[in-house]
Structures are given as structure tokens and as C-alpha cells.
Amino acid sequence: MSATNHHLLVLASTDTVQVVHDALDDLSELFFIEAETTEDALAHICTRSLAFIIMDPSLPGLEPQSIATALTGLPHTRIPPLLLITDDARRPDLYGQAPPLLIDHVITPIDSTVIRAKLLFFSAFFRQRIAMEQSIQELEIVYDRFMEQHQAVLSQTVAKKAMQASLSTFINQAQPFLSRIQAESTDDAMISVADVRPDLILINRRLKDGSGLHLLEKLVRLSTLSPVIFIVDRNHTDAGAAAVASGAQTFLILEHIAGMDLADTIQRAMAQAKMVHQVQGAMNRIELISRRDQLTQLLNRSGFNQTLAGEMAKARRYHLPLSILLTGIDHFKSLHDTYGHKTGDDILTACVARIKALTRDDDVVCRFAADKFAVVLPNTEANRARILAERIRLHIFEHRIQIGTRLLQLTVSIGSASFEGTQTPDDTPPTLPELVQQAINALDRSIQKGGNQIQS
Fold first, then answer.
1. What is the reported pLDDT for 453?
2. What letter does residue 148 receive in the DSSP assignment?
3. CA 289, CA 387: separation in Å to the nearest integer?
4. What are the helix (H) ranges across 227-381?
5. Rounded to the nearest 5 degrees, what angle is found at the Cα of 158, between the Cα atoms of 154 and 160?
């Protein structure tokens, strides 16, 4: 999902556009597109993937029915949610032309809290739709691989007799491997698994020092990637079912194990474990995508919150200092409106490059809002944070930035906040929201005093 997919189309008056912009200022991935005529609106609807649309049907030059018809003609997965602005308390007629979850309305005069809540719902709906599409694509790839493996297994059926002939050789080759990962006690088994990292683990229901289920539970907590086959006798098949419920790939009944069955079970267990790991990897990649800003490739606001929470917990546990910087590009909206969206993107990426050039490997640069960046500085006291902030300010101020054919003089305002790890037990350390609010307040003071400066 590229940054160009995060567009918000607004068909409304200038005052309404400003209210919406103020309400969504902290959603950095959303960019506003304004249209005043039906022709312009239809051009954007047909050529862009829109996060959602805000429309005032009474705006001169608009034909609401034509726009609604164009939306319903899109593929189902591309229909953006529609928020109507109306001065009539009655339900708008356009409700009958859109799915229930994809239409809502607000009544003028617009309450900024109400419109923000509705648009946040639409934004979450848009994110979930994109994430689901990516998840489906990932899972379709995994499914195709699974079907290829399945067809390969079917084609191998005719070669069963040849496999039977070589089975004794297979078992003789596997025996030294199996003996390496077997142990007489749970503790020895855990040590062996940690050292050897086996491709397969066989666990007997009865162990010298306890239950095989107990060992399985420990392996699950260890998050071992090795598939587990649980072995029971015919009088304890319920333990086999419990083992599968706890995380084993399958179980075998000791009295019924034959050579070919063992080989097939091992093959299926390892293939199943591989599938599980691929699916988990796909889901992990989707989660990572949801925490990244697509324009700058930095962590977004959600990623910033998670990173700062982790560093705050570490700082408190080990009595380490922690600082954050909030950097805002001065007059960014004016530059964006004057030179256009593409230049605005170029300014953002150029500033990110300059900030990252001055930070350490352990520091984390995030996109905090549309024109604001946060830097999390682990193990950094307030004075060192301010020194870095001054270097960032000068690095941007003293060098004009080449944007296309233009050389632009940019300045930034910076607010800093710190948690000192040397606080005494009687001191009350700031909570995570308080630390962030301190940095926001400091940034606001920098801007109010004219910008191009640092406040703490």
C-alpha cells in the first residue's frame, strides 16, 4: 500500500475543509484532495484508491446522484466510505445507494469531535480493508504452495513400493539424529533442544521424571520451531488428543506404528509445521506494514507509541535516562499549498534523511503527525538530547534543500522531554502520556515563539 493510496477527497466548502483538516491533523498518512465540481470529483474517484470521501450535497457545481452512481459502479473492494454534510436532520436520500457500513452523515454546524469520531471509524475501516487484501494475497501464495506440495504427495503414491524398499536405510540414517535429541529427563530434553535445534521432536507420554505433556508445555513456552510428534500407548489416546490441543502436530499410538506410517507421519508433520511458519510470517509482515508510514518508511504514530512504551519500561527497570524530541517543519502547510503535494512529500523525505543522518543506531525516528517527526533517544539525558536537537536544527537551517529545480530554505521547531533515570524513590516519574505531552507542549512553545528554535 503506497502513500498515494491514503487520499481523502473533500467536496465541501472551505470552512468545512478546515474543520476536517484540524480534526485529522495527527493522521499523517492522509492527504487532502479538494474538488468543487462533479467532473473533478469523478476524475479522482475513477483514478485513485480513496480512503474515504466527505461531500456536502448542497455545494454549487455538484451532482450528488452522479457521484453516488459512480461509487456504486466501482468494484466492491474499492468503494470508499462516504460522509455527508447536511443541514437537514432527516436521513439523506443517498443512504439507499451505499452499503450501510460505507455511509454516514453529520449535521451543520459541524462538531469537530463528532466528525473526528466518524472519520476515525472510516479510517480504521480503510486500514482493515487494505490489511485484509494484503493478508489474502499472502495467504493465497501460501495456499498455492500448499497445493503444489499436495499434488507432489499424490504423485509420489506410485512410488510407495520403492520407498518401502529403502525404508530400512532411512531409519538407520535417522537413528543417530533421533538419539541426539532424546533425553531421559525433562531438563535434559530442554537443554538438548536449545543446543541442537532439531528438525523434529518425538515425545513419549511417559518420561523418567514426569509427563510428556509437561515437556510439551515447556517447549511451547520456549516457542521452538521444531514440529512435535507425541507418542502414546493404546490405553492413553486421550493424552494424544491433549498433546495436539497443546501444540503437537500429531500423535502416534505406539502399538500401531509401522515403518511406512512413521515416515509418512514425519513428512506430514514437517510439511505442516512449515506451512504454519509461513502463515505466521505472512501475518507478522502484515503487522509490520500496519506500523510503518509508507512515504518515509518510518514507524508511524502507533509504532512510536509501542517503541516508547518499551523504552520507558526499560528505563524505569534499569534506572536509565530516556529522552524524546518532537520536530515540526515550520510553515509546512504553506509550502505544501504553494508548491503542491509532490513537493510536500519531497520536503518530508529530505528532512527525514537529515534527521536520520545525525541519530545513533539505537535511536528510533518516527513519523508523529503530518509534518512532525519524533525521535526516541534511549539512555540519553536531557542535556545530550538538547545537543542533538540543536545539531538537527542547524543541519536543516544551514543547508538549502534541493526540491526538484528549487532550492528551499527550511527551518524546524523542536520540543524535547526527558525522563531521568537517577530519580530518587520519592520522585514520581512521568507516565508515558505525560512525557509525550511535555514534548508536545515544548514544540508548541517553539512554534509560538517564531520557530527555528528548541524548547524543553
1. 94
2. H
3. 33
4. 237-246, 259-290, 301-318, 332-339, 341-358
5. 100
Distances (CA, A) of 383 to 321, 361, 393, 416: 11, 19, 15, 10
Q: Which of 13-27, 333-347, 409-423 has the lowest mean pLDDT?
A: 13-27
Q: What is the 3-state secondary structure (H, E, C) of 163-174?
A: HHHCHHHHHHHH
* Three-state secondary-structure class, residue 322: strand
Percent of the chain with pLDDT over 90: 16
What are the phi and psi torsion angles at 232 (to 5°)?
-130, 165
Confidence grade of residue 323 (pLDDT, cut at 50, 70, 90): very high
pLDDT at 43 over 90: no
Question: Phi-psi category of 54—alpha, beta or left, where left has phi over 0 and alpha has psi -120 to 50?
Answer: beta
Identity at 370, one-letter amino acid code: A
**For residues 110, 114, 119 and 120, what is the CA-based torsion angle, rounded to 10 degrees?**
150
Cα 385 to Cα 353: distance, rounded to the nearest angstrom: 19
Fill in the DSSP letter of residue 3. Answer: G
C-alpha angle 186/188/190, rounded to 5°? 70
**Cβ partners under 8 Å of residue 70, min gap 6:** 42, 45, 46
Sheet holding 372-378, edge to edge: 364-369, 372-378, 322-329, 412-419, 454-455
Among 431, 409, 444, CA closest to 326: 444
DSSP conformational letter for 370 = T
Q: Picking from 56-70, 346-360, 430-444, which range would have the lowest pLDDT averaged per residue?
A: 56-70
Using 50, 70 and 90 to split pLDDT, how confident is the model at 163? very low
Report pLDDT for 188: 72
Question: What is the Cα–Cα distance from 45 to 51, expressed in whole angstroms?
Answer: 11
**Residue 438 has what pLDDT?**
93
Question: What are the grid coordinates assigned to 137, written together?
Answer: 494475497
Whether pTM > 0.85 for this model: the answer is no
- What's residue 173's pLDDT? 43
Q: Once rounded to an integer, what is the mean pLDDT over residues 374-403?
A: 90
- What is the b/e burial string over 127-140, where b = at least 16 CB atoms within 10 angstroms of the residue's CB? eebbeeebbeebbe
Please choose, from the candidates 282, 278, 212, 195, the residue with its C-alpha nearest in 3D space to the C-alpha of residue 248: 212
Mean pLDDT of the 295-315 span = 88
CA dihedral 375, 376, 381, 386 (to 10 degrees): 10
The residue among 309, 311, 321, 315 whose CA lies nearest residue 420 is 321
